[in-house]
Structure of Amidophosphoribosyltransferase:
Amino acid sequence: MDNNNIMNTADFDVLHEECGVFGAYDFDGEDVASTIYYGLFALQHRGQESCGIAVSDTNGPKGKVMSYKDMGLVNEVFNPENLEKLKGNIGVGHVRYSTAGSSVRENAQPLVLNYVKGTLGMAHNGNLLNAVELREELSYTGAIFQTTIDSEVIAYLIARERLKVGTVEEAVKNAMLKIKGAYSLVVMSPRKLIGARDPFGFKPLCIGKRDNTYFLSSETCALDTVGAEFVRDVLPGEVVTITSKGIESDTSLCQKNNARCIFEYIYFARPDSKIDGMGVYESRINAGRILAKTHPVDADLVVGVPESGNPAALGFSLESGIPYGNAFIKNNYVGRTFIKPKQAQRESSVKVKLNVLKEAVAGKRVVMIDDSIVRGTTSARIVSLLKNSGAKEVHVRISSPPFKHPCYFGTDIPSEDQLIATGKTVDEICKIIGADSLGYLEVDRLSEMICGGTGFCDACFTGNYPMDPPTRDIRGEMG
Amino acid sequence: MDNNNIMNTADFDVLHEECGVFGAYDFDGEDVASTIYYGLFALQHRGQESCGIAVSDTNGPKGKVMSYKDMGLVNEVFNPENLEKLKGNIGVGHVRYSTAGSSVRENAQPLVLNYVKGTLGMAHNGNLLNAVELREELSYTGAIFQTTIDSEVIAYLIARERLKVGTVEEAVKNAMLKIKGAYSLVVMSPRKLIGARDPFGFKPLCIGKRDNTYFLSSETCALDTVGAEFVRDVLPGEVVTITSKGIESDTSLCQKNNARCIFEYIYFARPDSKIDGMGVYESRINAGRILAKTHPVDADLVVGVPESGNPAALGFSLESGIPYGNAFIKNNYVGRTFIKPKQAQRESSVKVKLNVLKEAVAGKRVVMIDDSIVRGTTSARIVSLLKNSGAKEVHVRISSPPFKHPCYFGTDIPSEDQLIATGKTVDEICKIIGADSLGYLEVDRLSEMICGGTGFCDACFTGNYPMDPPTRDIRGEMG
Amino acid sequence: MDNNNIMNTADFDVLHEECGVFGAYDFDGEDVASTIYYGLFALQHRGQESCGIAVSDTNGPKGKVMSYKDMGLVNEVFNPENLEKLKGNIGVGHVRYSTAGSSVRENAQPLVLNYVKGTLGMAHNGNLLNAVELREELSYTGAIFQTTIDSEVIAYLIARERLKVGTVEEAVKNAMLKIKGAYSLVVMSPRKLIGARDPFGFKPLCIGKRDNTYFLSSETCALDTVGAEFVRDVLPGEVVTITSKGIESDTSLCQKNNARCIFEYIYFARPDSKIDGMGVYESRINAGRILAKTHPVDADLVVGVPESGNPAALGFSLESGIPYGNAFIKNNYVGRTFIKPKQAQRESSVKVKLNVLKEAVAGKRVVMIDDSIVRGTTSARIVSLLKNSGAKEVHVRISSPPFKHPCYFGTDIPSEDQLIATGKTVDEICKIIGADSLGYLEVDRLSEMICGGTGFCDACFTGNYPMDPPTRDIRGEMG
Amino acid sequence: MDNNNIMNTADFDVLHEECGVFGAYDFDGEDVASTIYYGLFALQHRGQESCGIAVSDTNGPKGKVMSYKDMGLVNEVFNPENLEKLKGNIGVGHVRYSTAGSSVRENAQPLVLNYVKGTLGMAHNGNLLNAVELREELSYTGAIFQTTIDSEVIAYLIARERLKVGTVEEAVKNAMLKIKGAYSLVVMSPRKLIGARDPFGFKPLCIGKRDNTYFLSSETCALDTVGAEFVRDVLPGEVVTITSKGIESDTSLCQKNNARCIFEYIYFARPDSKIDGMGVYESRINAGRILAKTHPVDADLVVGVPESGNPAALGFSLESGIPYGNAFIKNNYVGRTFIKPKQAQRESSVKVKLNVLKEAVAGKRVVMIDDSIVRGTTSARIVSLLKNSGAKEVHVRISSPPFKHPCYFGTDIPSEDQLIATGKTVDEICKIIGADSLGYLEVDRLSEMICGGTGFCDACFTGNYPMDPPTRDIRGEMG
């Protein structure tokens, strides 16, 4: 059970991705749970609250699924004993972060269920816009809901479509016609591993291969970890079906109009991943380079706020010629169960987590690069840490545009009234965080950042939602 | 996770009840979780594998249910922290034993769900005969199943009926028309606590009251524990609805033909409970008295196999005049996680659990009373313990008839080929267990045991099932 | 860590033994940890707070000891993994109850240490009277203490004596010359298993044998559990040394004047144990018989307060002819972590733990037998439970004399001002507990209870201490 | 208990520091446990196996110490409940890594004990050379040892000296005259906090202050974390005594000949610490600069092996003008309980922990900076990872000299036959790890690295031990 005194990661003033998915199918019949375990490790940054693995034996009695899931990190939930018991050569895994209200074990994924045609295991990354309506609609035909996760809604739709069509992949596709929003899905039926991505392609999903084992993964970094080769990305709108006959693809729902989440490049994805052909690390280097050109400054040192600010800082340095350095030491031992200092205590969470290398910054004009400013409180504290350590000037450069609008597609962001950029000028923000200057990456440079790529969603910066946002804020209800 | 070396209670050669249910509704608005906790303690003998509590605040926002459930004893699952978080003045609780296959956390009860009219919490004791058919039928209208427990089937039926009728209690009644088998149900809707018992009345269910709090409980002993007064039993086939307006009763499904489980009186229920007006302790005393009359023997001492054999032993002594005594010391510290001795070890599970008071039995002709013989192995070991301790003769008397037929109504019994009584005469069994004589309670004396009561199910002894048994053995699939 | 809301066993108004010891030496070289585990199970009633096992391989490198100990029941502390790691054919085990102040993991036994001659493992049952003085004395020669247990003092003395004499058993004997009080010791050196008992013989200790394995145990019941034969009791004042050459005995400290704890027979020991040749069960039957003669009463039913009151109740019934019966159902699932009801709650700890069989007692004149009355609160509640259940009269008979004086030898009893018998007449106590009559076993009948045995300590009843009690109350400091 | 399948940090081919110490004394009487908790976080890199905190109330009854310690990270061992119970305004804390043999809970620190003058709490970083002799000597005067840690030996010496002298600080100093080796000590007596450092000053220790609270800490980074100001380093050989009257210093054991561990600067200490006036980060930058001058190479990119190689890589880049970049992504979620891949599995521990940024290195000539090569296996794998990712050349530069000799002062290093540098030329090592060139920092440049500092121990590189090494290898026995 949670303890109120325990600080969870949400206390740090950062954005949260909500999920990572991973699937594996070994056609040689070997167990895949252990490999999925390592795959989930590589995706842990996408969700630290709960995790789970479900497996099935495609050569055994049809539809027996074994699963284990719980609150906690991959590291904490799985041990040699429970992993050993997950016997099966096909499986799906999931890591999850959730908004506070639905942080209960019942909501951990993968979702495992019996339906008319046997069993399904399902892992989902994203957020549906019409989940409330669909739940209501399904309720009126007698559905009951035991969780508050969107996956359950999708599962119902697949189950019902499956009554009408001949294959589970067709059912998946038909279900996709009813759901609106962001979703990358990995679905395991007794003999098939299916991957699907919403037609806008909000969330990433890719295919990998190692000998006779196929993989589906939110990010390519997990393929590297398990020693698999990257085959290709699943296309926005595509349904891929992996069976003993190979990979089948149904692209009938693909559309021209894509909306890949630009924040995957800026912050969410691991730098060693490639998403839809574009390297994440490279895009962050680019962001730094662009900032150096658009918001130049005379300074002695460029530093990144660890870890995510470092690549952009390097890019800024390469472009500007100002030396790159480290200004911060991050304490990696501050885990999920870290006890948060109380107000009255002299210690602060930021100081426990970050310390400044005084000798590196003292007397210098410092360019400090971060990926975003959310509430502004953390930025203010870090600027203050630098100044207290003797930095003569602190010039803040942010490798994304000001964050002004809610995301309805699976990113957990505070409400608009908590976002520092809402209704404030850059100058005002600069003053609030105590910086000597402040520069954001401009929205019209985002495409340049990803080497001219298009078809991304920048609604959190622009308010230009790729599909109509819900009339009421449904975030938090859906989890 | 389980450990194969750990002996669970199933290793002892005894029968298992599968569930206990408890519900509470405090019209003064006080939290009931703590009281349910104590109620579940009193019902722990009905299920030691998992337990759970779900509560709701009838004065709060409609339909917010908080629940906590896990594998383990009431003692192990709940602590002051998690109990404290269960805020609400209406609630249901459950203790569960299950057959091996479905011993997973997902199957712990109460089942909590959202449906068309809000939330339901449900706890169920019993076993449905047509669950497979109903699941199939429901699947063909798009239902998905996340557990393997019957409660989920019942919940679906209630949810679907609720679309057609005006109240949840009507929906419960209509659902009852579709399900066949044994079930005592406690259902919590946002503003109502509902109890229902199948028309045969296989499983017990009673109503209690303490000030402004009403209770539903599998057994009266739990009412005693929480300081409540017994109000009455729920009738077989009755649906009772407890609201702020009082108790409403719908008896339209009641029928003449009842089939109360006779084994509740013989073994399952706690001796301090009364079921349908008949005291359990008294019925066991009666069983001993009957045995003394029907299977008399010249002996020096009457002893019971603890704990369950003691009352019948006392009855045998009272009737026969042979002194009652204790022959065994039972080690109550042997809990769920006891490490089972390996074959090669000199220690045996029986010896760790039971020791003989040598001085009490040495040189004596002993009447040993037990409630039943299942596989016979434990009985053989206990007879042997007595003889090795110097008992001159051991006369075994069993306070129930030979157990020959499977139960489809919620009792976990081995398959027929493992039952010692199947296809063997009493003399053969006597030899196998090494006794000097053996006597069972005759079937035609069961009514006398419960003071002339009628309307009970004795199918496990007679094969006379009150409803057609399933054509294939569905035990184990259902859990 | 403890939780204040959790009721520990101390909350029940009973006396507590403080320890049980068990040792094993397998001359065939097999591991003994598993056997010690089962032996500790049988001794669990002597201490439920912490437990531990230490083992050594007499054929391996000299003096490598492996141990594991922790707070909790045998059941909770050991699992197949940690038990498996305890490799060695000689070992000692311990179960412990302690007074509140010293309930910390550091005080768990066995104590394992390195000293001038290698390693020692030591388990101790009892309490020293001069521990404070010895600690002080040892301190002045540079000793440091890492626990608050007496065993550490004894270990120092053995270590220091060992510098002067040729064998560890001699060192043990010499140490015994310095310590005053109650102690049964099991000591493991690299090649020897040593048992010792203080010259008064306060605490029991016996020897057992199974094939080529020798045992030392607080009680014979543990020998039965592991399938060993009882060899003999260790004599008061004797030091036995078990080596590959057999059992050697040094009786030079034996004295005529013994003081076996009479409470072992009345309450502490398991009924299936024999202590110094006298069966515990038999002595309790005797106590009941004596009460029937000395405090007869006209009644309909004799009942025992479970579990400990049952044998005496049986004895009372046998002697008086009044039928024996069960009046109470005890909930055996109430474990160490049971959450204690708060004052405001309607539930009480007694009611959760005990329920009355109303039908058994209603309208009857009941003789209720218990082993002792400590504070009186529990007795009062139980009498009240019986009366509320319809008992017409409740006559309380106690199978021991009134408990009036503190014990300095290892029994945890409340201070005199909390003992109901201090300064009150039997009539006054009878009124306080609400009984219709009250009778205690007279002090001068104690010898009759144990079949004419002599040489026991009855100081808690008489104040006649076998050795001068400490001038200040040192209980609690010693742990 | 440990699980053999679980990889512990020792599996990574790196060196281990053995301890970190932290002490606090709040003269305003506030509890210090929480502050020590945050201090230990900052020192976690010095020991990840066990940790503990002991506190005492200087205004309460003299000498009551409360402590809690266990195996695990600070994060895992402490929770709000157990931290809350540690009441006291003076305290010591400890983090520990140990060699395999003594990895048991009993060896966790601080050591808490009673001795002739009350209580002591003690935390120790280092390793004694004459611990075996001292143990033997102490044994011959009747000492018993319950742990295998050096602190117990030191405690005995202090306790015995205290009998002769008037203050505990004098006793500490006198004990220091008897012990040989490396030790930084924090000792808490009922009214004093004492810090001491061996005359060679092998291990760091510094003093901090925050309002009315004084601190002793292994590293300055922990002072930063708790918001304290650095006061000064404790001098090699100095004993500082902090009481309500201020800081007293006894420098009578100080000597000219110092031997600060050079590896603190190279690898052990956190980069944001200053040790004896020299910044750790700066020394690592310097090491990189020196390598660029002494082992220049024509290349496109300089990268560090995370985390420890990064500062030297930056220094190399600054000096050489070759661009600095990131080549690796380290998975920070790989914790203590990570399940190690089996031999047969395709995943490797290195790959799970490190991934290469292919786009950053492909086609490039890479300079890879690491702090040391121990066995060489990890270096070989990382070089191979870079080459497989397309690096055209990999030039390895090591920011320390070849590591050839055992350390007897508290660093856990493999035996000489496992050290790759023993008996091999640099060219041979280069071939083994598969690099295109290899350069080590020369021994005669170490002083330059720390800005001309002298008085350090470089025995692991040179074999020039500041005191005679033990005649037999006592590492592992001492723990």
